[in-house]
Amino acid sequence: MTAYEEDYRRTVKHVPASGFLDGTSIELIRRARRPHPPRQVLFDFDGTLSLIREGWQEVMIPMMVEVLAATGTGETPEGLHRLADDFVTKLTGKQTIYQMIQLSEEVAARGGKPLDPLEYKKIYHDRLMERIRHRRDALRSGEVLPRDMLVPYSCEMLQALRERGVSLYLASGTDRKYVLEEARLLGLEEWFGPHIYGAIEDYRNYSKAMVIERILRENSVDGKTLVGFGDGYVEIQNVKEAGGVAVAVASNERARDGTVNQWKRDRLIGIGADVVIPDYGDFRALLAYLWGESPQQAGRQPPEPGALTRE
User: I need a surface site. Which of 40, 174, 189, 202 has the fewest CB within 10 A?
Assistant: First the structure.
């Protein structure tokens, strides 16, 4: 299993009108295959459960503009911002190091002498930690409750999954040591225990695809028993490639108001998501659907798997 994470490429060109589970915000893009009930459930971390790092782009992009401007390029700050925003957006969902590799390449293309991508990653992360320090401190002190820094109804969803007897896994593109720390601050260890995975310095030896392969191998099961939740394209793509059901969490991280982030929705449908949700407010109906317990649906019946037109 390769650790390389592909760039985003839309594989679903034409998406027919979707349907919603009756009385819910659960959008069904295509009918989920359920030859067996789910046994393993994988979650992404940032944006799918945790909101501690909400707004990270507002740190990364200005930092990149600063680095690129230092090359002496004649490009305007506005032009550099558009450039950085474009490739940061394109690579969102992959490990952070890939964005820093691209930054190094952009510096070299302008005649500059780039730092090692790991150095750029450290600069970015130091600035990000300064931005979110108050959130982490507020969680430690109890001033802010974990549920205030989670996608709404995350805890209720995880508890309901545990009651159904599934194994829960968490895989993130954020460095593992920070994922472990922030998962602890949010009380998520209760549900995931030792099954928390994050990026390592040798990024070639870690990927979400490798985590999925390990889950299936260690449990001696195939991907048909896997369900994955994520707001990034990498985990959606990897779950689909393994044969599982992919639930796109198109979370509005700043508002936390149950509305769908349309950019996430379109991006994740474009890579093959089966279901789209804004948060976990309708977790009971969603789990009933995934377990095949709720056949009644409002709106148009979603198409069968494979009915979408692909490139």
Answer: 202
